[in-house]
Every structure is written in C-alpha cells, then in structure tokens.
Amino acid sequence: MNTTIKITALCAVLTCCAVSYSAPLLMEGKKTIYQRVLTTPSCVLKKDKSAKGVPVPAFTRYYVYERDGDTLKVGPDTSDKISGYIDVSCAVDWKAQTALVFTNPAGRDRAIIFDKKDNLQKIIESKDPAPHVDALNKSLDASGKAPGVVAREPADYTDISKNFYLLPVLSSEETMFDDGSYARELEIASVTKEGIKGASDKSKADPAKIKTFKAALVFVIDSSISMQPYIDRTKQAISTIYKKLEAEHLQSSVQFGLVSFRSNTKAVPGLEYDSKLYVNPGEANSAEDFDRKLKTLSQAKVSSALFDEDAYAGINTALSKVSWKDYGGRYIVLITDAGAIGGSDKLSTTGLDSKELRLEAEKQGAAIYALHLLTPSGQKAKDHDKAKSQYEDLTFNKILQKPLYYPVEAGSVDSFGRMVDSLSDSIASQVKAASLGKSGAGSNTSSDGAKDDSMDDDTRLLGHAMMLAYLGSVNGTVPPDFFKGWISDRDLKAHNKISAEPVVLLTKSELSDLKDITSRVLESANKGLLDADQMFSQLRSIAVSMGRDPAALKKADALKLGQMGLFGEYLDDLPYKSRLQELDEQTWMSMGPDEQNRAIEDLEQKLRYYQKCNDDASKWIKLADDAQASEAVYPVQLEALP
C-alpha cells in the first residue's frame, strides 16, 4: 500500500469514528451564554414532538437546543444530552439567571405584583402613593382580588434557604418616585417547588403555632484587660432574667449563650484563647447552671498586642457553633470597648471582616447588636470612630434598614447594665407573648423601669419579623404558584425599605471563574499600589490570554475593566452597578492610597466569600434532576459581586 492510500484509509477511519456534538442555541448578542427556559406547572416533556408527554416538575431549567415553531428541543445542561420537547407556551425565557428574594415583611407593606408595568408606574409616579396602595390592600384583604393585581407577597416570611422558590427576573428598569427616591421595576415570574397542587393549603398560616416559638440570645463579650466590670454586669443581667423566666416557667423557651474573645494567642500566648464558647444555648436551664459554666470567665491577665481585639473571631464562633435552626428568635450581642482586627491583618485568626460576617448572619436569620463602650482608653487610642464604622457595617439590619449599633457613653457600667437588662427583658417578653399565642412582643421598659426607646423599638420590630419568619417556616408558606407581573424592589409607601432583593444564580464553573478573575485582578491591584502602569499592563495581558482582541486594548488607560472583557458575560445585564467593572486606569491613579487599600480589602473579602459559597454544600441547588453536577447553582447576593 502506498503512502496516499494509507492516508486515505486513515481519514476514512477518523471520519467513521468522529462524534458529532451540538451545543445549545446562543442568546442573541452573546458568545458564551446559551438560551435557557424555566418550566411552569403545566409543562409536559415529550420524547418526540407528537408524543403525549409526562409532567415536568415546576421550576426545572432547560437549555434550548432547537426552536421549531411552538416547540422547544431541550436538555438539562450543555453536554448535548437531550431531554425531549416542551411547548413554548409553558416555558419562561430566562435571559439573566437572576431571581428575586422577598425580604422579611415586618415593618412594611406586603409587596404587590401588578399585571402590567403601567399599573405599577402610575403608583410610583403619583405624588402620594399611600391612598392607592391602601385601597389595593383593602380590596386584597377583603376578597383576595384587586384591579391590576396578579399576586401579593405572603403574610409570613418565606426563607429561601428552607423553602426554595424562584422569582426569576425577566427584565429590569430603573425608575424614580415623585420624592426622588430610586427604585427598580422588575418583570418577574414565580415558579415554586410545590407547583399548583397543595400550595394554597400550605399558604394558610396557623397563628396558634407561634406558641412553640423559642429564642436564643448569645452574648459575645470582650474579655481583655479592663473588661471585668462589664463581664460581671452581663452575668448579673442573665441571672436576673433567668429567675424571672423560671417564675413564669419559660426558662426552656429563652436560651442564653456566651462567647468570649480576646486576640491572637500566637502573638501573646498569655491570652489563652482568641475566642471561646463558654455556654451554648440550651446547655444551661437555670441561673445556677449558667453561673457554674461561667465560673472561670474573667478578664485576661496580660495585654493584647494591639488595642483592637479579635471581635470578628467571637462573632464567627457564635455564628458557626450555635445551632440557630432550633430557634425562631436569633440574637447576637457584641460587647466591647475596642475596634475589631481586620480580616487582612496578620493578627486576624479568621481572615473575616464585617461584611462577610453580616452576610453569614443574614443567612442564619440572626440579628447582631453591638454595645460599644466608649471608654477613655479608647478615646485616647483614637479608636472610637474606626470601631463605630466597623460595627455599624457589621450590625446593619436589612429589616430595619439601620445598624443595631448602640454606643455606651464614657463606658458607663450603669448605662451598659440598663441596656443589657432592657434587651434581655424585651426578648423574654416576646417569648412570653408568643406562648400566649400573640405575634406582637416587646417591653417598653427595662427591668428597673428605665427606658431605652431606640433599642427597645428595634428589638420589638425584629421580634415581630422573626415571628413572621418562624410562622412561615412551620406553616410551609410559599409564594403564589405561577404568575408573571411587575414589582418594585422598594416599599411603595416607605421608599427607604427594601421589599425584595435580586440574587444571581451562579453555576459552579461561573463561581470558579469569578473567583479566579477576582484573584487575578487583586494580584494586579496589589502591584498597582506602586505602579498603576504595571497593574493595567498585567490586566491587558490577562485579557489577551483570555482571547480578547489585542488591538482593542491598545488604549486601555481609557478602557474600563468591564470593557476589557475580563469578566464573564453572565455578569452582563444584571440589575446592579459594578464598581470594579467601571474602574479604569485614570480613576485608579486618581484614588488616594487609603481608597486603593479599601478597594483591595474589598476584593479580598469577596474572594473569601466566594470560597465560603463554594464550600456551602447545603445551598447548591439543582434546577434539573438529570443535569450534570456542575450545573447546580448557588444564590449570590448582588452586593457580593465585583
């Protein structure tokens, strides 16, 4: 056989054995994002176009491989695996893989979903939306119907981590109320796990179930030198409230815990520990039990390396070691006279910062308070302002739209004691009211008659919110089964209150990609502290290595990072504004060293958050039963994006 024949024969074999591969259809204008649809409760999947078909679970996500008139050829992932055919009429196009999550409705009106954008826009543009909204709610309360309304948010709070639901965002537009407040108008569809069957029954709340509501209050206390008076006063407050609870037979319904923190023991071994869980809620059922477990708790015998202490280690211990799911009321109270060691500091034992811990507390449904002791030593160290900024960020509560930060002037032990008494008493009153079947709770006075209106009002409103969340959980509350409509992400009357928040559902590969590019930008930014030219030169090289056109990057000093093509198309068209993607070389050079350092710290925090998301196996969701594991998605808050 001559050479020509050999080559021909080989080509024939290769042709025979070649495997054809078809990818899903690309979205219009995209190079890497495929067309996706979500099924509605009426969808059936057919093996071929003429077959009868079988029902498909609601909210199944399919990739579209072919559009043929009224029929879609679909698959569960991008691997060329074909599931079958569904009708266009029962599917919802999902361009950006974003969804809306309701916030806790305590302290605001329930969100209303309108059939048409114009009906929502009329209310937003009116000089006084309140009469229009009140009339709609009155009609909905009376008959379940109102003109131009397709659905309303459930009365109880639906926790997406316990009862997963989708409110896919189909389109988004920014608008403005007459008073100048901004809002997003979002076109959404609702697809719930339950589908049509049984959802209406589960939505009927049983108020009597509030009687099983329990609360956990965990103190996270600084036990460094100078803190003994506050440690003793906290013990006293807990002992007093325990005795009251015992007298009313409620000691099993309000559980106390305590975490103590100091600083890095590698720097100062004599500190003994950086953070320590002394009492887990439920371990002590009487004042005597609690006192016994705290017998060895006292202030440190040696000074820490810095004035700041590792408060974030204490908060992290409380969040990670307490079984919060066992409680409806979830409270953490930070007590300290010092600022917190930042996550990027070499003495940090966790590598975590306020934002990451705040997001974790939101996942757990826990409210973090900070009682900041403004002692003379903190004033002398010029630490108060920095610590206030840290703890306001840590304790910012989305329900109240304010930080749960309470300064104690001059570090007064008496003032501090009254605040701890008031807080403990208020939470105990919530549980007492719940035991009587009442959803309102809270005391207007502390145990000795002294008032702290701000803290008490906040605690009563939070108690109500937590009860709504608890009722939603025990009643299995779900949003309406299926609808399409328009919603505002802000309360239509109180425009400063957020009624719903967008999240992006990232696949494992997308999250990995986001983590990788953020890491590379961070590396470049660290070099840019000394030389901005070097930073953007490296970023141009990264863009070229990713297949971007070198000619288009020649004038990169005027190009924003997003225009360089560094970030994936899955971040395009999201209803948020990215600070990082808007950054260009000129802007970076105009930033001072402090601002550049803050930008770098923000990137570091985001990287740690992405890693936590990746490791959180309980939150990864499969949107199609037969999809590859890599197609599972994780709900990431928009504020966590670069």
What share of residues is helical? Answer: 25-40%
Low-pLDDT runs of 5+ residues are: 1-18, 192-204, 441-452
- N- to C-terminal separation? 62 Å
Q: Identify the strand order in the major beta sheet.
A: 16-15-14-17-18-21
What can be said about this structure in brief?
With 642 residues, this protein is an alpha+beta fold. The protein is built from 16 helices and 24 strands.
Describe this structure in words.
The chain is an alpha+beta fold and 642 residues long. It has helices spanning 3-17, 117-125, 129-143, 199-202, 228-247, 287-293, 311-321, 354-364, 376-380, 384-394, 413-435, 453-475, 508-528, 532-545, 585-590, 593-615; strands at residues 36-39, 44-45, 54-55, 61-68, 71-75, 84-87, 91-93, 98-102, 112-114, 149-152, 165-166, 169-176, 182-192, 215-222, 254-261, 275-279, 329-336, 367-374, 396-397, 402-403, 405-409, 482-488, 500-507, 633-637. The strands form seven sheets. The chain has a six-stranded mixed sheet with strand order 16-15-14-17-18-21, sandwiched between helices. Helix 5 runs antiparallel to helix 6, helix 8 runs parallel beside helix 10 (384-394) and helix 11 (413-435) packs parallel to helix 12. The chain starts with a helix and ends in a 5-residue tail after the last strand.
